[in-house]
Design a protein that fits this description.
Strand order of the largest sheet: 3-2-5
Order of helices and strands: HEEEEEEEHHHHEHHHHEEHH
Structural class: alpha+beta
Strand content: 15-25%
Helix content: 40-55%
Distance between the termini: 173 Å
Number of strands: 10
Largest sheet: 3 strands, antiparallel
């Protein structure tokens, strides 16, 4: 009976020792073995890792990409503007032995380096660069962090500036600047439009001076556009130039048929539904144009014979 107890005790001790000698390394981890306090050169791959009891000690190192936010840092830019900037750093371990031996806590070390690098970037940059040229600043900050991180077996994957907080006075000044810039562009566009319109109007005036009928057609088109609204009263002057135009456009045989004592208009209707033609008394118009001056037509009284 005592022998049976001894065998069972030996089995239990053997199982405990076997459990202590076997470790499981996950796919995203690497195992660093310390034998009697000295690191072994070989790194244990994912799977079962057998250790020497009492002599070996296994330390697992995560090989995944770690996302670490950098706390917001207050600083003064090169153009003397107080800002508050925060960022985020992506890094991973490339040498597990150096990450486990050369630095006590590589995550904390990367965080401190990122904060100091962010402050240095703020002091070397202008406000416009922080707001619009962040890609170059991200690359510069990545180089500043990656230089010491390589000695710790860590590689910086990416660094990005997240947000830039500005004072309220600076925000108001920037809004006024943007408003003034928009106003300047609007005025330039309006002046350019006026210039182009004046050039086109000049060309149109040259065409109308060569062809007076174009001015009359434009006037009639304007009348049609105004009359389409039907909500206003239109006073239309009848220019003498239109009569002259009609006189020149009238055939010679039709002008000869118009007499001095005839009515002002002659009407004649064509057959088969043709439109009615109206011809003005152009002879009377010519007589009025060639008449004497207004002083003689008004018949002023003689000054030698005053009115009674």
């Amino acid at each position: 009976m005592i022998v049976l107890y001894l065998v069972l005790a030996a089995l239990v001790v053997g199982l405990i020792g076997a459990a202590a000698c076997v470790r499981v390394v996950k796919q995203f981890e690497r195992g660093v073995v310390f034998r009697f306090g000295r690191v072994r050169p070989e790194v244990r791959r994912p799977g079962l890792a057998l250790l020497v009891p009492i002599a070996d000690r296994l330390q697992k190192v995560n090989m995944q990409i770690i996302t670490m936010p950098v706390p917001a840092q207050d600083g003064i830019t090169r153009d003397n503007v107080t800002v508050r900037v925060d960022a985020v750093v992506y890094f991973s371990v490339v040498d597990p032995v150096r990450a486990a031996v050369d630095v006590q806590d590589y995550v904390s070390a990367i965080g401190q380096v990122a904060q100091t690098s962010l402050r240095s970037i703020i002091g070397k940059s202008d406000l416009d660069d922080l707001l619009s040229n962040r890609e170059r600043l991200n690359q510069g900050m990545e180089l500043m962090i990656d230089s010491p991180a390589l000695d710790w077996g860590v590689h910086i994957e990416r660094v990005e500036i997240k947000d830039v907080a500005l004072p309220e006075t600076m925000k108001r000044s920037m809004s006024r600047q943007a408003e003034a810039e928009r106003e300047r562009r609007a005025r330039i566009i309006t002046a350019d439009g006026e210039l182009q319109a004046s050039e086109k109007l000049g060309q149109a005036a040259e065409v109308m001076s060569e062809h007076p009928a174009a001015l009359q057609l434009r006037l009639l088109q304007t009348v049609v556009e105004v009359a389409a609204e039907k909500n206003s009263t239109l006073v239309l002057p009848f220019p003498v130039e239109l009569l002259r135009f009609l006189e020149r456009s009238t055939p010679q045989e039709n002008a000869n048929t118009v007499g001095v004592g005839e009515p002002t208009t002659t009407r004649g209707a064509a057959k088969n539904g043709s439109p009615v033609s109206i011809a003005p008394d152009l002879t009377k118009v010519r007589e009025i144009e060639h008449s004497e001056g207004p002083a003689e037509r008004l018949h002023w009284p003689d000054r030698a014979h005053p009115m009674v």
